[in-house]
Specification:
823 residues; alpha+beta; nine-stranded mixed sheet; four-stranded parallel sheet; 29 helices; 21 strands
Length: 823
């Protein structure tokens, strides 16, 4: 039998200590596969355990190659996890759930319109006022009877669990800034690659049409009269929990990914800063919680939002999706009243039940929560939701003091699904996040979603392993997502100039990429010398090794003894805490790449995945030869990175990246030749040092071909400083920098960066190599002065580029601090 059939046959219900049987997504109570799984092709059902583990390993590799990460609250960034066994839902099951999701989104939108409008729910007593006014998600600054909130909710998320009878039950609503749509699409992309036949023959709904519909929906909610609206995705930044999800969404939709500092309020409207101008923003897809969105009228200490955003929303010059204040709909105290509100606002019964919830804001509710403390999950309606740090007595005191701030919930009913755990299939508790979109005049759920599996007993909001959601079609000709054709939007070529923050990141992406390459080349040369001459310190090779190793240590100070070359090089490649190391520079390079993910090719992250595997091989292998092997593999990978960026459009971002690369290559050249060629050490040592320099500068073959193996300091300097045909030379890179500067809007021919480059080029034209190589004692003072002055001028050039092309506004500062000083 295959692994899934074995799993189904082994399931005994009730199980896992439950008083009632848990619904199993794969296995029927009689031990056979459920109908939805029986419809799948044999390629999915007949997998053996070794094959499933192989698929799991391939999934992990693909996710690592694409840089898919997630940062749980209060934890370090971690790799996104995807289980190879999807959640499969039959069409007749989905049809019932789909109606409930559409109704729920419509109801939430109606509740939002009422709370920020006439407030009939409060006036009629259908909903207690303290639930609304006592919740931080209710924003009074946007509540007024004349407000237009017809499109308050454009996309919603609904967390669901399945009861033992197989019915779906709502655990929580996500309306503030529902995340996970990008992760859902990434899961689908990966699983379709590792199970291509099963995916192709499953007859399931593709997700791409949902994204097309989402793009149309966002353009249609723009303020009236905007023919070609500008839409942006507002992110808290690359350290956000769901930064990957945000970047994926922005890239897929084709909208700029911006941060609060990239936007500015002027004349009651919101504008985006681009090079030399402002462009008005019409729609903001918000991934910043509402209370942090405007430091002027909301949380004054916020550095994530846009000062004046609330006023622009009130004036109707910009649409925020979802609207400011939609977080009040995530209030768990609303759940006991959802059925009554549905009857009043929609005049129909609630289709999806909620997890049983008791609000402590009434005397009866308070007493019930206190009497059932041992069996209910007690939550606050505001963060921190779970008061874990309180003792029982402290919790009782807190509830009695502010009962309206607490609810008691029965543990959410969840199903189980076979999940690959430590090489075996185990039944894990499963929750589903479904997404619903306003499509035209109604709401349409995504036919699919994002499922999460975790060991039974884990809280539903804790992170486990994700699962793809396969909703099968009723018939092969059924349109994907039930959309024959998305609503059309006029095709207009949008401006593509990135904001100054992104240009700054691309500039440093170029610098760090070049720094990694140059460090690796120098490390490889050092390792080769150490392999031959370690222990022969007084030989010419040993003395050359000492010189080259000292250059490496000047770039990255080492905690190791000067003669411990192996420990030093291993640390250089692996230790992210060592200043200036390859490992630290690669980590910084990856951080910057994450922040501009919407600007670069996904291939860039495959390069990082390959570099991580090379470093992993070194960490696992104690032998010295592995240092050179891993460094060589990492060098190959970083050269592939240059190839990836070489395919980018030649816009301002690419030119600034090339400027950063040229400045860094020139600086690294000064760091290399300065200490190595400024001292005379004897004929043999000088020859070996010169050869090492040429090798580190990737110019050894060219020099050998031109000078037939004869190595002199003057010929080395001529090739590395003055030869404009050598891509590694100072002259070549300065010319390239000058050409890229000329393409930028802030350049006039007389800007400070252009003047500094001109000065450097003029200095090179006047340069006399023979004079540079003149000896005084054992040193070459003219060359020392030249190398130092050139390095300082290059640093000034880097600063000038930042001042002219990146400076758009001062760094956001807190306007006020709360009593707790929190951020």
């Amino acid at each position: 039998m295959t692994v899934l059939r074995d799993y189904a046959a082994s399931v005994i219900q009730p199980a896992l200590g439950q008083t009632a049987a848990l619904y199993d997504e794969v296995a029927s109570p009689d031990g056979t596969l459920r109908t939805s799984w029986k419809r799948l092709a044999a390629e999915a059902v007949d997998l053996t355990l070794p094959e499933l583990n192989r698929v799991g390993d391939e999934i992990a590799r693909l996710l690592a190659d694409e840089g898919v990460v997630y940062t749980p609250p209060g934890a370090d960034q971690q790799a996104w996890r995807l289980d190879p066994v999807p959640l499969v839902i039959a069409p007749e099951e989905w049809s019932v759930l789909e109606k409930g999701l559409a109704q729920r989104a419509e109801l939430l939108n109606a509740i939002s319109r009422d709370l920020y409008g006439p407030q009939e729910l409060l006036a009629s007593g259908t909903l207690p006022a303290s639930i609304v006014f006592g919740h931080s998600g209710f924003l009074r600054v946007v509540a007024r009877a004349s407000a237009d909130h017809r499109r308050q909710l454009v996309v919603t998320g609904t967390d669901l669990g399945r009861t033992p009878s197989g019915e779906w039950q709502v655990i929580a609503d996500r309306t503030q800034a529902p995340s996970g749509i990008g992760f859902a699409m990434e899961n689908r992309r990966v699983l379709s690659r590792v199970l291509p036949v099963a995916y192709r023959e499953a007859g399931l709904h593709r997700l791409a049409p949902f994204f097309q519909a989402l793009r149309v929906a966002l353009t249609q909610v723009a303020p009236d009269g905007r023919e070609h609206p500008r839409v942006v995705v507002l992110s808290p930044g690359p350290t956000s929990e769901t930064a990957y999800d945000q970047a994926f969404l922005a890239t897929t939709l084709g909208f700029p990914l911006v941060e609060g500092s990239d936007l500015v309020a002027r004349d009651g409207a919101i504008w985006m800063r681009v090079l030399g101008r402002l462009e008005q923003v019409d729609v903001i897809l918000r991934r910043v919680d509402a209370e942090w969105s405007d430091p002027l009228e909301l949380r004054g200490e916020s550095q994530l939002g846009v000062t004046g955003l609330t006023e622009a929303v009130r004036r109707g010059t910009v649409t925020v999706v979802n609207g400011l204040g939609s977080g009040v709909l995530e209030n768990a105290a609303l759940l006991p009243f959802m059925s009554a509100m549905c009857e009043r606002l929609l005049d129909e019964p609630l289709r999806l039940s909620n997890v049983p919830t008791v609000w402590a804001g009434t005397p009866e509710g308070r007493d019930q929560v206190l009497d059932r403390l041992d069996e209910l999950v007690v939550r606050r309606i505001d963060p921190p939701f779970v008061p874990e740090a309180l003792t029982r007595e402290q919790l009782v005191t807190a509830i009695l003091a502010e009962p309206y701030r607490y609810v008691g919930q029965e543990r959410a009913a969840v199903s189980v699904s076979p999940t690959l755990d430590r090489g075996r299939l185990q039944p894990h508790a499963l929750t589903l996040r479904a997404f619903t979109l306003r499509h035209g005049s109604s709401y349409r759920p995504m036919i699919g979603g994002l499922a999460t599996a975790a060991p039974v007993g884990t809280e539903s909001d804790e992170v486990g392993v994700s699962k793809d959601v396969w909703v099968l079609k009723e018939s092969p000709d059924e349109p994907d997502q039930g959309l024959l054709d998305s609503l059309q939007v006029a095709h207009v070529r949008a401006p593509v100039t990135p904001v100054p923050r992104v240009l700054d990141d691309l500039f440093w992406l170029g610098r760090y990429a070049e720094r990694v390459e140059d460090l690796l080349r120098l490390a490889i040369v050092t390792h080769e010398l150490a392999e031959d001459f370690q222990g022969r310190a007084h030989s010419s090779g040993g003395r050359t090794l000492s010189v080259v190793a000292q250059v490496l240590r000047s770039l990255s100070p080492s905690p190791f003894d000067a003669q411990d070359f192996e420990g030093d090089l291993r640390s250089l490649l692996l230790d992210t805490r060592r200043p200036g190391s390859v490992a630290q520079t690669v980590a910084r390079l990856k951080e910057i790449a994450q922040s501009v993910r919407d600007q670069v090719s996904p291939d860039l992250f495959r390069v990082f995945g390959a570099m991580d595997r090379a470093r992993g091989a070194l960490a696992a292998n104690p032998h010295g030869w592995q240092i050179g092997e891993s460094a060589g593999r990492m060098l190959t990978d970083v050269l592939a990175l240059h190839g990836v960026t070489g395919n980018m459009v030649r816009d301002e971002g690419w030119h600034l990246m090339e400027i950063g690369r040229g400045i860094e290559r020139s600086l690294q050249l000064c760091h290399l030749v300065g200490p190595t060629l400024s001292v005379r050490r004897g004929i043999d040592v000088d020859r070996d040092v010169h050869l090492a320099v040429l090798q580190a500068a990737e110019s050894a073959i060219t020099h050998r071909r031109r000078h037939r193996g004869v190595v002199r300091g003057a010929s080395v300097l001529d090739l590395l400083l003055l030869d404009e045909t050598n891509p590694r030379s100072l002259a070549f890179n300065l010319r390239a920098i000058d050409a890229s500067l000329a393409t930028l809007p802030g350049s006039s021919g007389a800007s400070r960066p252009e003047r500094l480059v001109d000065d450097l080029l003029e200095e090179l034209e006047r340069l006399d190599v023979a004079a540079l190589m003149s000896i005084e004692g054992e040193s070459r003072p003219n060359f020392v002065r030249f190398a130092q002055a050139t390095g300082q001028q290059l640093m000034r050039l880097s600063d000038a580029v930042a001042e002219v092309h990146f400076a758009a506004a001062p760094t956001p500062r807190a306007l006020a601090l709360s009593a707790g000083g929190g951020a």
